[in-house]
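Quick one: structure tokens for this chain, please?
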Amino acid sequence: MGWRNYASVKATGTFGSFTIPTTNLPSFFNLITSNTTGFLTVNPATYNNLTDQAFLSRQQLLKYQASAGSTTFTANVLQYLGTFSRDLNAPIWSPATPTGSTINYAAQANTATSANRDVLGVRVTTSFTRADGTTAQVVNLS
């Protein structure tokens, strides 16, 4: 948080050992809760002539790591860092009917009782409580 939101939280220190003054957390909370673009953009504010940081791709993150050197930013840290994606995070598989099959899986892809559903077409029909405690809601897409 100290690196990505450097100007927003007015962080002190260097990469890997930032300190964030607790007095700045309410303004950061307000920034996050009023953000209408998700995390795809950063706050344009500056602090110590620096802004908040954002990589637009994983490739940019990897290039930065390579240029920063192992003493500043080790490759071990990469497993904890990522980039925000504009892509739909959904499976792309849908059932096909194998040659010689007696079951037409492709024709049954959108049948509710099918064992091999096209999961992109599955929608919530009644509300239920998910494992994390949140409630799945029925949404009418028409």
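Residues 90-142 form one domain.
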